[in-house]
Each structure stands twice: as structure tokens, then as C-alpha cells.
Amino acid sequence: MHIRSYYFLPIRLMAILLLVGLMVVRGKAQNLVLNNSFEVNINCGSVANGGVNGWNSPLQGYIKLNTYSYFNLCSKDSCCGVPSNNYRYGWQYARTGLAYVGFWFTNNNGGSDRIYLQTKLNDSLKANHCYLIEFYVNLYNYAKYANNNISLLVGDTGIVSYNGQPAYAFPQIQQYGNPCITDTLNWVKVGGIYTAHGGEQYITIGNFTDDAHTDTLKIQSTFGSSGYNIDDVSVIPLDSMQLKAEAGRDTTIVKGDSVWIGSRLCGLTNVVWYDGANNIIDTGAPGLWVKPTSNTFYIIEQDVCGQYSRDTVFVNVQPLPVTIKNYELKIKNRIQGDGVENVWETASEINVSHFNVQRSE
User: Fold this and answer.
1) Alpha helices in the chain (DSSP H)
2) What tens digit of pLDDT does each residue of 96-123 get?
3) Nearest Cα to Cα of residue 287 among 266, 310, 257
4) 235: which strand partners?
5) Nearest to 206 by CA among 165, 156, 145
6) Residue 234 CB neighbours (<10 A)
7) Cα 233 to Cα 335: distance, rounded to the nearest angstrom
8) 258-to-68, 281, 290, 319 alpha-carbon distances in Å
9) What is each CA distance from 268 to 27, 144, 246, in whole angstroms?
């Protein structure tokens, strides 16, 4: 059992500690996003809409659904707690801290309910400087659909969205390959490298295309549309950190299967992949699918904004536990109802104790 105690500090002392904390964080890697994990709030989730210092939903003329939702452990309202909340029956722990936000990305029942999450950076971006930009997403538990186009837009000024319609733009940050994100349990990273033209001050998260140009996967038979939780947003100058190549975690697969290696960080162009025989197998991709037939390894080599690094991932390949050589379904006597006989022959078996045979109508 863990016993925790809470106590209050004088406001001046709290301010000093907060300043020291920010100085320590910036000493490691300077994040230009204030309140990046949504801990500082106005109403602590006492209502479902809004409430986070420094963040807004830039919508005009839209009354039905006009802002993001805020969830915090300190909420006194059951709508907006962490991890449990009854705002559409959600359940999710914050990735860090005690809070996160959520909002709609599409409306697949007709119309376009677009909510955006926007903030002003605490410093303008510098021309020709590189930045690592990341945020984490998690599909609503009750979402009927999952979507792609989960993106972040960097701009000189903030955007405005009218009447819940898409704010058409060309966002710079999204997962490489732009897949649909379907995970309702884990926080999924969306990130990339951005080279500034200078003067950019705002970032906006959302879906900047219409439903017709957004891929959709049906997750469950329920009401509604596609919504995502958001946590831990960061814009970090690369000259304040070291960006290391990411080949992925060592893994084991069954022979015949494929596995994704690397990352989905966008904006990595100067990248080369090598196989275990030192052959170049891909360039310009932060990650790729591979299908090895035996134990092997892969190497990623990258040079991002003058930062060079390499990384290696090992893939262990196990043989199939059972190889079916022949399978036959025999109807013994349909008129007399003698049933069906399953006959199969295996070419190889490894650590197999028995077979389960299932049937259905």
C-alpha cells in the first residue's frame, strides 16, 4: 500500500519552485509549448468544455459543439475525471501528470464537426532552425470510427474555423504514412522534424481535411463519430537536444509474418536502411515493413539537421509451430445426418500437444 500526503505551499514559494522546475526542464530540452500536458487549469474539469490555461478552440459561429473537453484527476464532476469519466463513457489515464484534453476529429454521420486545439508558443521559431514537434493521441473508448489525418499545423498566426467546418491547410506534422490510429489503450506518438522559415508562433492540432478525404475505419457499432484524447505536446529546438536514430525494439516473429521496424517520425529525409548483409534496402523512410525468413538485424543511419546517428534492431524468426500439409472436410451422410469429418495431415509440429476443432453455423 502506498500512502501519499498532500499539503499546500505559500503562493510565492510555489512560484519559485515552478520557476526552478521550468529551468531544469529547459536545461535538458527547451519545450516552447507552455502548459504542454494541460495540468494548469481554470475550472479543473468541473464542466466538460474548455478550462485549460493557454489553449483554445479557434471556432466561430458554431454553437452545437464549440470547444475541446478537459479531463483531470482533480475534477469534482463525474463527467471529467481521470481515469474514469462518464462523458461518453471514457476511461483513460493521462500519459504524464493528471490531465489531458479530447475533441472530435470527424463526423461520419453527416456534416463536419471539426474541433481544433490551438496555442501560442512562448517564443517565435528561428529561420532555418530545426525543431522536433510531438504530441500523443488516444482514440476515444466510445468512438465509432478511427481516422487518419491526425495532424499539427505550425503557423505565423492562429487559424479560425467557421461553423465546425474543416480549416483547410497543409499541416507539417503527422505520422509517417498517415495511418488511421485505432489504439484506445496506449498513447500513440505523432511527431516529426520541422525546419522553420522564421517567425512561426502558433501550433494547431486537428484534422485539416474534409470527411471525403479522410480515411475511416469502423471500430464498433455505436453512435457518433471519431474523437481523440491529446496529451504531452512539445516543440523542442534540435540545438537544445540530441536526436538519436530509432530502429525500434528487438522483436520475435513467426516465419512468414511481417514486422514494422523504425519509427513513424515524419520529416526524416536523409535516412538509409541496411540489412544484416550491409545491403541498402530503403532510403528516406523512418520505418518500414520487413519479412525476414531467419534471424537477422537491420541498421538505420540518419543525418538530421547536422546530427548523425545509427541504431540497430534485431528480429528473431521462429518456425511455425504447425505446418498443415493437407486438409479435407468430408460430409459422411447428409441424409442420415451422420455429420462431417475433418481430416488433416501435418508436415511438421513443434511443441504441439493437441488441436481444438471449432464449428459454427
Assistant:
1) 11-28
2) 999 999 988 876 555 567 889 999 999 9
3) 266
4) 133
5) 165
6) 19
7) 67
8) 38, 15, 6, 13
9) 25, 33, 11
